[in-house]
Amino acid sequence: MPDGIVVRRAGWVVVVSVLITLIAGVVGAGTIGALSLNRFEAPGSESARARDDLARLFGTGSPNVALLVTARRGTVDSDPVEAAGRALTRELAAYPGVGDAWSYWTRQGVATLRSGDGRQAMVLAWVPGDADRVRRAVLPALTPHFTRGDAVIDVRAGGSDEVFRTVMEQARQDFVQAELVVLPMVLLLLWLVYRRLAAALVTLGVGIFAVAGSLALLRGVVLLTEVSTFASNIALVMGVGLGVDYGLFMIFRLREELRRGLPVPEAVTRTVRTAGRTVLFSGVTVAASLSVLFAFPFPFLRSFAYAGVAVVVAAVIGATVVLPAALALLGHRVARAGSARVERRGFWHGLALRVVRRPLAFGGAALAVVLLLGSPFLGVRFGLPDDRVLPSSAPVRQMYDQIRAGFSQEEADAVHVVAPEGNAAQAGPYAAALSRVGGVVRVDSAAGSYAEGRPVPGPADARFAAARGTWLSVVASSDRLDADAAGLVRRVRAVPAPFAVEVGGYPAELADYRDGVTARLPLIGLLIVLVTFVVLFVMTGSVVAPLKASALNLLSLSVMFGALVFVFQDGHLSGLLGFTPTGSIEPSIPILMFCVAYGLSMDYEVFLLARIKEEYDRTGDAVASVPAGIARSAPLVTAAAAILAASFAAYATGRVVFLQQLGVGMALTVAVDATLIRGVLVPALMRLAGPANWWAPGPLRRLRRAVSVSDSET
């Protein structure tokens, strides 16, 4: 590490770093506009094939645009309303970008497109193209154009893509508002920790450098592959968090070196060689934790891996190159004002001593509390997201509240059964069999419509047949979809067909995405434990310490998942936070939180292990080194965790459920991890393990020596 050059050329390094930050900010601003929008879909799945064949053979698809039409007077069957509805359907079908459109009035008055009281009806449309095209090129003009009213009808525009376009816009606003609170709050908290404004400013500067640098790095990634817009949000959250963590660690270490009486250049150099090494290991651990998201074949989740790795690279450079240069210039202006604290006589040293004396009692009590907090996770139910991730004040949410209240089924969520080689004449018995599936209201096909196994009046039109192939529309009740949409899809797929079929539609796409995500959870868990084990073994030379760290991290994360279930699935605190519980949790956001929280928890573990290992290497006392090392590192971990938890808590004030989950879950996890886990369970387990904490079999010790990894200086 070129620490000597950084110290000798500190002024130039700072100037160049400021210029790089400004350039990165400009480049990063362009990155945000180049990021992609994504749908919850699984490439290569059965539902994806059904979607492609439905578009290719029949020129239609699952409706992603919906118009809710309300009659001003009378019902939707009155002549003036029918005329207006037909005209509206034709206008929507002719709108640029729309591929197909149909409505209650053009499909022979099918009951599933009409509300129970007869005052409302639906117009549905399919806009082909990916999420970027639909949500950026079509909907921004289409939605306001068709949200209108006259003397005959009132029209509200929505649809699945409009829902998630609104989610994107609301999340962006929430993030901006949160950052306006987070940055000054972090600066204030840093000043309270340091009691030096200069130290607080340079630490926050590392976070800003990390954010700008990561967005600039993502600009290069965007040129090669698709990256989700939510990647920029991860860059904001993690950039500030890691910048604060690493800045605190470096400055705390520099203060120790200055208290020893070392001149500033030598103190900075030793800080980089010791604390900088720990920061590097921490960065590798966090990056490894997030890189396991590459194991998912979904662009949405892979985007978080790109963003996470970019943030770590920028944060490590900021902490080990930019920050040391600034510290070399500031010198004693970052030292603690007044007399120095003696960490060994502080609260954490006393707590660690008590835990070491009675490890079973303290460790058992802390373990019981953690398990209690995590126990709600045993009742987790993974489900599919809908408009209720938005606040009730959002216009598209209000539209769907009306649909849920007035319609017993929603045809926009029909399951489509596509038979590319099927014969329309054979569709009748198959449609009858599908209509007998529990929760199915009606099945439309080229052979007619069926309900409960019997023919019913319905639109048996040419849209269900082509020169080659046929397809069927399976409409289920809203209650069935809310209860178990994925189960409905499985039941439909299990019905024997007279020809080869592909089952798609919005419920099937979400079910395939959910199944694809959850099926890889064991692999993700194995990979994240494996890669962090390797990194911690290289750092410590022990096989016990990494295994213990992984077990404690999983305990810490159980608290996060318990909170997600208790609050967001079961609805506790929903009134306070202002969201609508749906009884399930969408799986991809918790997986993201798992990787981020695991990396940050391991971040603190690295800091603690580094100090305890230093004490053990210096004294050879496996027991006394634990409270001594904790006394030197716990104040840092506590300060970093308090700032990070407060930062995450600010995101709980957002109006999108995904953002609230991130804020509540991460804030609670960081707080529990820094107190019960690192303050009690770590010393308890290390006391019980004794010298075995640092044990490794001979071949592994020789392998570690072969790669020339040395312990940090004392």
UniProtKB/TrEMBL annotation:
Report keywords, A-Z.
Cell membrane, Membrane, Transmembrane, Transmembrane helix
Q: What Pfam families has UniProt attached to this entry?
A: MMPL
Q: Principal localization?
A: membrane
Q: Which InterPro entries match?
A: MMPL_dom, Mycobact_MmpL, SSD
Organism domain of life: Bacteria
List residues traversing the bilayer. Answer: 12-37, 175-194, 201-224, 230-252, 279-298, 304-331, 360-384, 523-544, 551-569, 589-610, 630-652
What the record says about family reads:
Belongs to the resistance-nodulation-cell division (RND) (TC 2.A.6) family. MmpL subfamily.
Question: What name goes with this protein?
Answer: MMPL family transporter
